[in-house]
Structure to design on (140 residues):
């Protein structure tokens, strides 16, 4: 079985848009998308396929090719939605962390031993360091 990787929205923005400030950092990491099973949580798809990206013809074409590859799979977020929603409000109201609902879903997926996620590709490691450490998920 191939190792699996979850890719955060910020990485997709950087990879798909040459004008993005992290584009040059994203390109060398694109090799992970070839060598691993790329897990697309639905919330990441919602965030990535925004109005700005769908107007970026080369970016949208590349993203479509990546999603249709045999090493790509979409993960339904239904099992994580209610907990992620509650946790997002709890964390923000208590002032512990301000984290998006999408990132909270990713955190829950990383903790799910049944998914067997091996790596996370993100430009925002602080939102995931604790959960990646406990779940033994490598941050790339």
């Amino acid at each position: 079985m191939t190792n699996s990787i979850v890719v955060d929205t910020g990485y997709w923005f950087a990879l798909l848009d040459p004008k993005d400030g992290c584009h040059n950092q994203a390109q060398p990491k694109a090799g992970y998308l070839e060598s691993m099973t790329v897990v697309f949580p639905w919330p990441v798809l919602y965030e990535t396929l925004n109005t700005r990206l769908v107007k970026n013809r080369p970016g949208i074409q590349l993203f479509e090719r990546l999603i249709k590859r045999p090493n790509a799979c979409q993960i339904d977020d239904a099992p994580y939605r209610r907990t992620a929603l509650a946790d997002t409000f709890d964390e923000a109201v208590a002032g512990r962390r301000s984290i998006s609902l999408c990132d909270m879903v990713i955190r829950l997926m990383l903790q799910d031993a049944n998914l067997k996620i091996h790596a996370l590709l993100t430009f925002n490691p602080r939102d995931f360091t604790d959960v990646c450490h406990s779940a033994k998920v490598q941050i790339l």
About this structure: The radius of gyration is 15 Å.
